Amino acid sequence: MTYRYRADVLRALWRHGVHPRPDTAPELVRSYVRDLYKYEIRKLRQRMLCQEFPRLEYSGRVEALRDRYAVLSLLPHQFLESPSAGPG
Questions:
Q1: Which residue from 1, 6, 73 is spatially nearest to 33, judged by alpha carbons?
Q2: What is the CB neighbour count within 10 angstroms for residue 36?
Q3: pLDDT tens across 42-87, in order?
Q4: Tally of CB atoms within 10 A around 29
Q5: DSSP state at residue 24
Q6: In this structure, are residues 37 and 70 in contact, taking their beta carbons and an 8 Å threshold?
Q7: For residue 48, which of 58, 60, 71, 77 sits 20 to 30 Å off, Cα-Cα?
Q8: Which pLDDT value is given to residue 55?
């Protein structure tokens, strides 16, 4: 199967080093990006526990991380261009 990813989604994915091919399922892409996000959250928590920054800053940093991974607010089918509507 061939998938046509939305241009804005591709730009968001590329920021994370993710370059899906036309035959890469959007479910797989989203799962991979979700795993990257979870890794970064764990790393951020570990840094806080090691006192690299104050606990009071944690929620702000989590929010900033969530904003960087805004593409995760989309469902896999929303990664794709909508099929064009035929004549009505």
A1: 73
A2: 14
A3: 999 999 999 999 999 999 999 999 999 999 999 999 999 987 544 4
A4: 21
A5: S
A6: no
A7: 71
A8: 96
- DSSP lists the bridge partners of residue 5 as 80
When pLDDT is cut at 50, 70 and 90, the band that residue 17 belongs to is very high
The whole-number pLDDT of residue 29 equals 98
Q: Which residues pair with 87 in a beta bridge?
A: none
Instruction: Quote the CA–CA distance of 46 and 4 in Å, as a whole number.
Output: 38
Residue 84 makes CB contacts below 8 A (sequence gap 6+) with: none
Residue 43, classified by CB atoms within 10 Å of its CB into exposed (0-12), middle (13-18) or buried (19+), is exposed
| Cα(9)–Cα(7) distance, integer angstroms | 5
What residue ranges do the domains of the chain occupy?
7-76
Question: How many other CB atoms are found less than 10 A from the CB of residue 20?
Answer: 20
